[in-house]
Structures are given as C-alpha cells and as structure tokens.
Write a structure and sequence with these properties.
With 180 residues, the chain is an alpha+beta fold. Helix content is 40%, strand content 27%. Strand 4 (85-90) and strand 5 form a beta hairpin. The longest helix has 29 residues, at 151-179. The two termini are 24 Å apart.
Length: 180
Amino acid sequence: MSNVKPQAISGVNAGTEAEIMTAYPSIAAGGAGQAIGRLCDAVPLRTNGVPWPRLLLAVVLWPFVVPIALTVGLLLYAFSKMFGQRYVLTNHNLSIRQMIGVRTVNQVSLSDIKQITIRELPGQAFYKAADLVCQGGDGKALLRLEGVQRPAVFRQTILEARDARTRVAESLKAIQARVK
C-alpha cells in the first residue's frame, strides 16, 4: 500500500507557482504614445464614428507618410516586443519580466498588495489604457504597471488572485494545525 496521499483537487498543488495571466504594456505606456493619444482626443469631430484626425491623415497623407510610418512603426513594435517588458500574475506574486527570457525586473508578493489604484495619464484614455499602482499596507507604491489596456479587468484579476492566495494560506495553516 502506498503512503502517498491523494490531492484534494486532482492536478492542483498548493505549493507550486502557476501563471494566471500575462498583460503587455500598450503604446500608451510611453511618452510618444501618450502624445499621439492626446492629439487624437483633442479633435472631437467624427464622421461615421471615425475621428477627423485619422480621416484627414488617411486621405491627405496616405501616399507619402503611410509607407514610412508603417515601416518605422513595425520596427518600433518589433523592438518593443523583443526588448520590452510584460506583466505576469501568478498564484504567488505579480512581476514585471523581460519580454524574451525569464529575467524578472521587479516582483511583489500577492500577500503584500493591499490596494491597487488605476491612474489614467493624459493620452491614455484614447487607448483605453492606464497605469496600475500596487500599494502596500502603509500606502507606499510597491509596483507600477504602465500602460495596461483594460486596467480594471487586470486589477480585478490581481485582487481575486490575492484573495484566493490568502484563503489558501489560511486553509493550509488550519490543516497543518490539525496534523500536529
């Protein structure tokens, strides 16, 4: 007879770290993207739902600017995807990691996060993005995630993961207390 105890939920081990969600910064994370967003938000006129700056650029500057802008834009996009950062939420922590590889730039434990504030900078609203600021119990900023698209969704996921982590830790303590 084996002395190995079965897991409460098949395939789930409370001691291992598992990735829950990964978010990538949008163009709204940088100053150039925010400037473009402010410019596009400055002109409220729309034609069939298309903002006038886009319409004017598309019609007037198409043959001259678009091929150059497309080339430069694709190169910048590829550069940011190769050498940029990503935000990884696991069942133990929230971290900022390099896009290529596994190098962690900054990391905070979920149990240290007490509050997450959404800060929308000028120009980020155009992209439906904002910065997420994770704060500790003393109100000090622990981690800043810049230019997260749909920040309310990622914020809610982080808070739910933190609450689940807290409940799992409490359950494990109760189980360990029974064993002794």
